[in-house]
Amino acid sequence: MSSVHNRVLSSAELQAFGDELDGVRARHQALLGASDARYIRRIVAAVRWTGVAGRALLFLGAFVHSVLVPAWIAGVLLLGLSKILENMELAHNIIHGQYDWMGDPQLQGKTYEWDIAGTSENWRKTHNFRHHTYTNVRGLDDDIGYGLLRIFPEQRWHPFFLAQPFVAVVFALLFEWGIAIQDLRIGRVLVGKMTLRQLWKQARPVGRKASLQILKDYVLFPALAGPFFLPVLLGNVAANIIRNVWTYVVIFCGHFTADAETFPKECIRNEGRGHWYLRQLRGSSNLTGGKWMDVMTGNLSHQIEHHFYPDIPANRYAAMAVEVKAICKRYGQHYNTGSLPRQFGQVMWRILRHAFPSKPAPERPLVAEPQAEAG
Question: Where are the domains of the chain?
Fold first, then answer.
């Protein structure tokens, strides 16, 4: 439970809070144009050329042994950078439909397929719909611990969680694979709610996509190096691990810091727009760090703004954040932001602390009860 004390808003305040945040959306949506299109096309080019340069350096190191180590390191870093930019600044934002207004068939949210083991179709279901609709609502948002980790005391404790410091490290290294199988809900087979045949049928699209990724990164490109297969293979493995760990760190910092909250299912009953904004605010966390942090995180350094406006081009979040922070301050709501070391340190402490039994604090109301307002 967060130690932050947010002011409880009345119904009238909540309505005004929502209206002001809607106004921020309307103002920035009206400004969409050439600069936004130019930005995303530069990201497309950056992904392409850092990827080409990274793979070229891996091949150079494989064939010219005198530069093997420096070329391999540079190749891994550039290929890892390409994969980070593609997943976070390009694919994640495109799949949210942020650039549908451009009419570019390569930038359409419903058809874009990304460079990762999981399918974009499953991501649209688990992330765009389930996570963004029910952010941090226990029992509805599968991103709370991803079925592997107990991060909040409100989650029921099981002895399995004693191993979660180790599980968390493995999950970070293999993060794309965890995302790939998230929607399969394999645990239902273990408790008899789904048969193996049903699981196999549901897993086919994921299997096809994962097979293509394995073929590309771990067979095709290394095979082009001929007898120097191994250095290129290891370079691809290292680049994917870099991408996986960075993505894990950014996503966990966006949702599981000390001040982030979870909510009971009852919280969303008859939920209005202002109430929805308030829940998104209290379940999200930002990162400081400036322009390069914004680009490297796909602008998820502004996780609060992303949860408020997931279909607005993310390059606008920094400007929107200035307005959002001022609105939160006026209404007495904590705006959760901090440096990467600070926020991730809090995440690691949650993972360690809640590996052991712990009791949740009493639930705090998001909004004032009607009888309290009447007084």
Answer: 11-32+129-353
- pLDDT > 90? residue 197: no
Question: Whole-angstrom Cα distance, residue 306 to residue 40?
Answer: 16
Is residue 85 scored above 70 in pLDDT?
A: yes
> Token pair for residue 98?
């942020």
From the centroid of its chain, how far is CA 43? Answer: 18
* Torsion region of 2: left, alpha or beta (phi above 0 gives left; psi -120 to 50 gives alpha): beta
Q: Whole-model pTM? A: 0.92
Q: Which helix (H) or strand (E) holds 223?
A: helix 221-224
pLDDT at 317: 98
Q: Which residues contact 58 (CB under 8 A, 6 or more apart)?
A: 71, 72, 75, 76, 79, 225, 231, 232, 235, 236
Longest C-alpha distance within the chain, in Å?
A: 80
Question: pLDDT category, 129, cuts 50, 70, 90?
Answer: very high
Q: Closest by alpha carbon to 217, among 243, 249, 178?
A: 243
CA 309 to chain centre: 14
Alpha carbons within 13 A on the beta-carbon side of 277 = 27
